[in-house]
Amino acid sequence: MVKHIVMWTLKPEADGRPAADNAAQMKARLEGLIGKVPGLKHLEVGVSVFAATPDCHVVLYSEFPSRADLEVYGAHPLHQECVAFIKQVVASRSVLDYEI
After folding, report:
1. pLDDT in tens, 47-99
2. Residues 41, 49: contact at Cβ < 8 Å?
3. 41/6 Cα distance (integer angstroms)
4. Bridge partners for 97 per DSSP
5. DSSP β-bridge partners for residue 45
6. Residue 98 forms beta bridges with which residues?
7. Rounded CA gap, 89 and 98, in Å?
8. CA distance 39 to 90
9. How far is it, in rounded angstroms, from Cα 60 to Cα 4?
10. What is the assigned CATH class of domain 2-99?
């Protein structure tokens, strides 16, 4: 099982919207991948982060059966649509992948 965790810090404003609106949009878009990307077994997005080091505004936790499934997710066209939006509104990103 592969766990994929991503933490993002958002720009205070991007695309004419405040960070809170962009966080909600990220959450909706990412959760929209559930059931649509092969190999994506679990996905949750948190936007009410109250403690994180380093600071972040949005966190993604997802699970995949294998590294190959994580690679399929990364390249999937629906995921790439999310990535295109996220790149517009994010100031920084941290990623952690591990296998159990």
Report:
1. 999 999 989 999 999 999 999 999 999 999 999 999 999 999 999 999 999 99
2. no
3. 16
4. 4
5. 60
6. 3
7. 26
8. 26
9. 8
10. alpha beta
